[in-house]
Amino acid sequence: MHTAQPRIFVAGHRGLVGSAIVRALHAQGLTNIVTRSRAELELTDQAQVRAFFQSEHIDQIYLAAARVGGIHANNTYPAEFIYDNTMVQANVVHEAWRNGVHKLLFLGSSCIYPRLAEQPIREEYLMNGILEPTNEPYAMAKIAGIKLCESYNRQYGTDYRCVMPTNLYGPGDNYHPQNSHVIPALIRRFHEAKIVGAGEVVIWGSGKAMREFLYVDDMAAASVYVMQLDPASYHANTDPMHSHLNVGTGSDTTIGELASLIGKTVGYDGQIVFDPSKPDGTPRKLLDVSKLTSLGWSARMPLDVGLQHAYRSFLDTNKLY
């Protein structure tokens, strides 16, 4: 006799992480997946979210819907970043509880940690220092999301879990010239430099800042893994005041090494020049992933192979051959 599959709502299924979570669920044979585009369901609208949960009878939620962007977008639209993210989280978590959804996974961001946190960054460093000013509104919203999940667990006995990914990249990324993150931005710049035969590509900063990068399908696999852990394992490795898990590779690379690797991946053979008069940002941001490793999951995709997949996806998306 077959057990009925759980009815799983993936909020943000068109985004970088949400689309990868849908792929990961399908790979496990889980097909009872509910999705809604923003045009079909505006998650900042409480009445719409309430009506959705009352009619759809959801069993599990992956909350990957968020307004996201790089430094430029965060600096330009701070009001949208704090309002949209706070409203989405509050509406989904509250209506999930109201409608008896016991299991939820909330996806945060490593920018929740203090700007000058000790490295590597452990889960308990949350709220131990000043945030990075450029993305503080976004970080505050994500911290509120973690605290929402913790509070509903404490008060109502729900099983709402939180994962904090490091910098993500891969198929489905945003390659916008101003609003993208470092890997998609560099892939686009090196590709365009190759097409026009530019002699050099100038990169902001010294190239010495260290960053950790996680392939998005690894992040999705970790999300499904954490959601499927039995409650005793998950809650034994977290505590009510720090009930989130870091997700990363446990290793980092300099921006200089990354640029060189992307240049090679794209096939650009000009010079790579660094402009140390421009800011490096935080010197280092590496997550401590020992809790997740102890629970039996670790990242698989090597950076060089992941970048090849990302470049192929960029070419397919932009039809640039």
Mean pLDDT over all positions: 93
CATH-assigned fold name: Rossmann fold
Ranges where pLDDT stays below 50 over 5 or more residues in a row are none
Classify the beta-strand content into a percent band: 5-15%
SSE pattern, N- to C-terminal: EHEHEHHEHEEHEEEHHEEHEEHH
**Ends apart, CA distance between termini:** 51 Å
Number of helical stretches of at least 4 residues: 11
Protein name: GDP-L-fucose synthase
Function: Catalyzes the two-step NADP-dependent conversion of GDP-4-dehydro-6-deoxy-D-mannose to GDP-fucose, involving an epimerase and a reductase reaction.
Catalytic activity: GDP-beta-L-fucose + NADP(+) = GDP-4-dehydro-alpha-D-rhamnose + NADPH + H(+)
Pathway: Nucleotide-sugar biosynthesis; GDP-L-fucose biosynthesis via de novo pathway; GDP-L-fucose from GDP-alpha-D-mannose: step 2/2
What would you say this structure looks like, in words?
The chain has 321 residues and is α/β, with parallel strands linked by helices. The chain is 43% helix and 15% strand. The strands form four sheets. Strands 2-1-3-4-5-10 form a six-stranded parallel β-sheet, sandwiched between helices. Strands 11-8-13 form a three-stranded mixed β-sheet. Helix 2 (46-56) packs parallel to helix 4, helix 4 runs parallel beside helix 5 and helix 9 (255-266) packs across helix 11. The longest helix has 21 residues, at 78-98. It is globular, with a radius of gyration of 20 Å. The N and C termini lie far apart (51 Å). The mean pLDDT is 93.
